[in-house]
Amino acid sequence: MSEARSRLLSTATRLFYSEGLHSVGIDRIVAEAKVTRATLYRHFPSKDDLVVAYLSGADEAIRGQVEQARNSGRSAPDIVRAVGKSIADSIRSEGFRGCAFLNAAAEYPAPTHPVHQTVVNHRQWFLDTVTELLAKTGETAPEPAARHFVMLRDGAMAAGCLTDPEPICETLLLGIEGILRYRDASIVEQAAVKTG
């Protein structure tokens, strides 16, 4: 990545996340990144391309956190807990302003828009990944459990920027623990049926 592209993307990322996608204009990004308009359009043919690049960077960061949890050598349930903890840590971080993807979907509601499609693709990947992680714990119904996990995450991301994040994060992590305990209870019940 060229230095100019990197500066443009880091400036856009900071401004888009803190102030919103539609409210930040190209002129401001160009001025704060200290590049010319021509340089911006050479790297990003339109503002939509820049927004998609911003979201793609957020997507890569989250994928990296999940991979780090996966490669940690932890048990399957502890990997699920680690993913939950990374979400809680982001909610507790300074300057937290909600989920970049939910915020983008609110600003770009048209289902066929490239920004909206980027959001949908990220969310599908996240749901598929959580489903896979829960399946590895022995969860017999990983898809509904994963949807539950994602709903907990979405609620925590929305509420975490509106009020004190600590009780929100506590509730999120307790909810994830509840999903894992429900799975444990189901496994015990199935074993009792088989041996009974």
TrEMBL record:
Keywords: DNA-binding. InterPro entries: Homeodomain-like_sf (IPR009057), HTH-type_TetR-like_transc_reg (IPR050109), HTH_TetR (IPR001647), Tet_transcr_reg_TetR-rel_C_sf (IPR036271). The keyword DNA-binding applies. Residues 25-44 bind DNA. Signal peptide: none annotated. SUPFAM superfamilies: Homeodomain-like (SSF46689), Tetracyclin repressor-like, C-terminal domain (SSF48498). Residues 2-62 form the HTH tetR-type domain. It comes from the Bacteria. It holds the Pfam family TetR_N. PANTHER family: HTH-TYPE TRANSCRIPTIONAL REGULATOR RUTR, HTH-TYPE TRANSCRIPTIONAL REPRESSOR BDCR. This is TetR/AcrR family transcriptional regulator. The lineage of its organism: Bacteria, Bacillati, Actinomycetota, Actinomycetes, Mycobacteriales.
